[in-house]
Automatic annotation (TrEMBL):
InterPro entries: FAD/NAD-bd_sf, GMC_OxRdtase, GMC_OxRdtase_N. PANTHER family: GLUCOSE DEHYDROGENASE [FAD, QUINONE], GLUCOSE-METHANOL-CHOLINE GMC OXIDOREDUCTASE. Residues 14-152 form the Glucose-methanol-choline oxidoreductase N-terminal domain. Belongs to the GMC oxidoreductase family. This is Glucose-methanol-choline oxidoreductase N-terminal domain-containing protein. It comes from the Eukaryota. It holds the Pfam family GMC_oxred_N. GO terms for molecular function: flavin adenine dinucleotide binding; oxidoreductase activity, acting on CH-OH group of donors.
Length: 158
């Protein structure tokens, strides 16, 4: 399921493996989303704004509507609603149970001065329980969200 790519040798990373890092990439219908850990993350605002300097149209403000359009967040009470979508094809939510150690880690981070909050909201330098791309106990890959619903409907999709 993995192309088993490795990076070019580096003197600054993966030093225990000769400077070459594993670079997992999925060779399946959903690509890498079919093998990743299901955690829902977005690039930090500053990364998108930096891309926009050489690729106009990739700023945070340009991309946010598409993130919202793709997302069906099932926890509106836990997120900043201006930064999330609620009727898109990709289900995003918290797992129904959280390990007990998680609360201790979050409290420790708060004691160190970090703020708790929505990790994909207005300020991404926070701590919190990451939301996942999962629905009814199953991984919500790009294939499951965008392709499978149309397999028996579209003539041009096999």
């Amino acid at each position: 399921l993995d192309w088993k790519y490795v990076t070019q040798p580096s003197t600054k990373a993966c030093l225990l493996s000769g400077g070459k890092c594993s670079w997992p990439r999925g060779k399946m219908m959903s690509g890498s989303s079919g093998m990743e850990g299901m955690m829902y993350t977005r690039p930090h605002r500053s990364i998108l704004d930096k891309w926009n300097e050489t690729n106009p149209g990739w700023s945070f403000e340009d991309c946010l509507p598409y993130y919202k359009k793709s997302e069906s967040n099932l926890n509106p009470d836990l997120v900043e609603t201006d930064y999330h979508g609620f009727d898109g094809p990709m289900t995003v939510q918290n797992f129904p149970t959280i390990p007990s150690l998680c609360e201790a880690v979050l409290e420790a981070a708060e004691q160190m001065g970090y703020e708790r909050g929505d990790l994909s909201g207005s300020e991404q330098r926070r701590v919190g329980v990451a939301q996942m791309m999962v629905y009814e106990g199953l991984r919500m890959s790009t294939s499951r969200a965008y392709i499978r619903p149309y397999l028996n409907i579209r003539d041009n999709l096999e």
